[in-house]
Design a protein that fits this description.
The chain contains six helices and eight strands. By secondary structure, it is α/β, with parallel strands linked by helices. β6 and β7 form a beta hairpin.
Length: about 325
């Protein structure tokens, strides 16, 4: 009986397990797509493949034609729609608007390409050709002998028939006084020839190169002291009251031949010459003396400068120069 009871219990238990295992099987003859509600089972038993979702019953939502067809979603006409039907014939106002827009576009293109500037430049050139602007009268060049203008100063004088003009800046070096000799400028900043003597003077002598040199040895007969030098040949233009200008005006006959051995043997021709001595007050340009003088020093000079023609000229002696200037300097 124990064995039989045990067998009955086992049989009952086995039937229950078989019913639990076969509870998910679909009844014979029914479609897998309509399973019955699942009986209670283990909480974490994974669902079997197929019965929960089954085969899709409709193909319209996922079919290739409607949602993903090439013509509807991705076709060229579908995203933007069809072109609107043609409107009514354009009127004259519409044509004018279109012409204005076209003209504006052309102007923009021309501006971008730089042609408008060219058109204006061409017209400006035509205008200048048709109506030339008045040209300022030519201004004679202002010759300077080396003056350096002060900052902010400008030269106010230029050669003209009106005579010398006042300079806006003082003479910076003795060579600037050449402008007084040439009747170009005078320097109001310089001291006038007034007061007690002596009145300092600078002698500028004409050369064969078209310039003048500052003669600093002609006064030696007056002495060699610094005081004498400052009176007759000062290098400071700020203390000079007068400038003496000695220019050769003509030449004459041959006086003699002068032979030299250094730097190489050579023979030069000494000619007679005539000079003009003018003395000006530096501060006003006023002429104090105008005298014609002959070249009385007719000896061959120890040192000489000469040109390709190998001609030299008799000079005014130092004695004659001192005699001509002495009254103006010492009185």
């Amino acid at each position: 009986m124990s064995d039989t009871g045990a067998g009955s219990d086992q049989g009952a238990t086995g039937n229950e397990e078989q019913r639990a295992d076969t509870a998910w099987m679909p009844p014979s003859g029914e479609s897998p797509a309509a399973p019955g509600p699942p009986p209670p089972g283990p909480a974490y038993t994974p669902p079997t493949a197929g019965p929960a979702f089954g085969q899709p019953t409709a193909v319209a939502p996922f079919g290739p034609v409607a949602p993903f067809g090439p013509a509807a979603p991705f076709g060229p006409a579908a995203p933007f729609g069809a072109y609107p039907p043609p409107g009514p014939p354009s009127t004259g106002r519409s044509r004018g608007l279109v012409a204005a827009v076209a003209a504006l576009s052309v102007l923009l293109l021309v501006a971008c390409s730089g042609l408008i500037g060219g058109a204006f430049l061409l017209r400006s050139s035509e205008r200048q050709t048709a109506e030339p602007e008045p040209v300022a009268p030519p201004v004679a060049p202002w010759r300077s002998s080396g003056t350096t203008p002060a900052p902010g100063a400008t030269a106010s004088a230029e050669p003209s028939t009106r005579g010398p003009q006042p300079s806006d800046f003082p003479a910076a070096q003795i060579s600037d006084l050449n402008d007084v000799c040439d009747g170009v400028l005078y320097f109001p900043q310089s001291p006038k020839r007034t007061g007690a003597a002596p009145h300092p003077v600078a002698l500028l002598v004409d050369t064969d190169m078209g310039t003048r040199r500052h003669d600093r040895v002609y006064y030696y007969d007056e002495g060699l002291s610094k005081r004498v030098e400052r009176t007759w040949a000062s290098e400071d233009p700020k203390v000079v009251q007068m400038v003496a200008c000695l220019d050769r005006t003509s030449t004459g006959t041959t006086i003699r031949k002068c032979r030299y051995d250094d730097p190489k043997p050579d023979t030069l021709t000494l000619l007679k010459a005539t000079y003009r001595l003018r003395v000006y007050e530096v501060a006003t340009g006023r002429r104090l003396l105008d005298k014609t003088m002959g070249g009385d020093d007719q000896q061959c000079p120890y040192v000489v400068l000469y040109g390709p023609d190998k001609k030299i000229y008799a000079e005014v002696s130092h004695r004659s120069l001192l005699s001509a200037l002495r009254n103006l300097v010492k009185r």
